[in-house]
Design brief:
alpha/beta; eight-stranded mixed beta sheet; 44% helix; globular
């Protein structure tokens, strides 16, 4: 709820740093971009709708975050850039990663923010259930492709999850989520985001790849357009009901972006990795989110869906995936 909200108080500057944010054309992604741009970062908005993203860029340029005057803002901002990223297309994910690797000098922060909820029953062009690919699997591939670029500098990977994960379980007999409801699919992908965070942190550590830390978080209940498909997939009026409840009992978009910003920049969490955050602080995870065997099994299942060979030597795995992109 809004009265439990914690704001990120870090004054850290990001001059000379490059940030990649998926789904940054609206909602908490756009507010995260606004904040980090105001700290001097070069912020890449990786989005699918170019017209909408161009409008977001103009909004970010002209409207500072709360508590900052326009003059203060304009005198301290960084840069904004747009890359096309359609997470429902693995080809687009690979193409976007390839362009970023080619054109950007470094990546210091990657925020996997884009998401969809209550999508109708349909599969992507890759034959993968839409919610699974957009919320989790596309980000899994995007992150793996960008890690070699991140190794040249200290980097944070921030995966936006949701408290709804506590209702979920990973069914490996139905990994493509063809036998569950739209809301259950959303919760399952958010559990997958946390398991991915923990497993990636483990593999980085075991491979002695230092300087890349991984975080997952619950942003709060927020009124955004993430439930835009719910009227068709659940019942007519669901989106209105969710929006009303979010406005009454949830957070504003600015408040909802705070934990993402906190994980991206706060000095206190600079040496933490593999943890889960709520309201700008570490929070315990429950149930399947603590199952390390499930996390490892999900990693292997994800690789199979992406037609990747899940080599136990993580360095070799990264090299193989990078070669496939060329």
């Amino acid at each position: 709820m809004w009265f439990f909200n914690q704001m990120c108080t870090s004054k850290a500057r990001l001059d000379g740093k490059t940030v990649v944010i998926t789904g940054a054309s609206c909602g908490i992604g756009k507010e995260t971009a606004r904040d980090l741009y105001g700290r001097g970062a070069r912020v890449i908005l990786a989005c699918r709708n170019m017209e909408k993203t161009n409008k977001a860029v103009e909004d970010i340029k002209n409207n500072p975050p709360p508590g900052i005057t326009k003059d203060e803002y304009l005198n301290n901002v960084g840069e904004l850039a747009i890359y096309c990223l359609e997470l429902s297309s693995l080809k687009s994910v690979r193409d976007c990663a390839k362009k970023i690797i080619k054109h950007e000098a470094a990546i210091h922060i990657l925020v996997n923010n884009a998401g969809v909820a209550a999508h109708q029953d349909n599969k992507t062009e890759d034959g993968i259930e839409m919610t699974l690919q957009v919320n989790y699997l596309g980000h899994f591939l995007f992150t793996i492709l960008l890690i070699p670029k991140m190794q040249s500098s200290s980097c944070r990977i921030v995966n936006v999850s949701s408290l709804t994960y506590i209702t979920a379980n990973i069914d490996f007999d139905d990994i493509n989520m063809e036998r569950v409801s739209p809301l259950a699919r959303y919760a399952r992908t958010k559990l997958a985001n946390i398991l991915f965070t923990k497993e990636l942190a483990r593999r980085l550590k075991e491979a002695n790849i230092n300087g890349i830390n991984v975080y997952s978080l619950h942003p709060g209940m927020i009124s955004t357009n993430i439930s835009r498909y719910a009227n068709e997939s659940i019942f007519y009026g669901f989106s209105f009901l969710f929006d009303m409840l979010s406005r009454l009992f949830g957070k504003t978009i600015v408040q909802g972006a705070q934990t993402t910003i906190y994980c991206s920049i706060d000095e206190e969490v600079a040496n933490q990795t593999g943890l889960y955050y709520v309201n700008c602080g570490v929070s315990n995870t429950y149930l399947k989110a603590n199952d390390h065997q499930c996390a490892e099994k999900l990693w292997h299942a994800s690789c199979r869906l992406l037609h990747l060979e899940p080599d136990e030597n993580f360095t070799t795995f990264l090299e193989t995936v990078s070669r496939q992109m060329l």
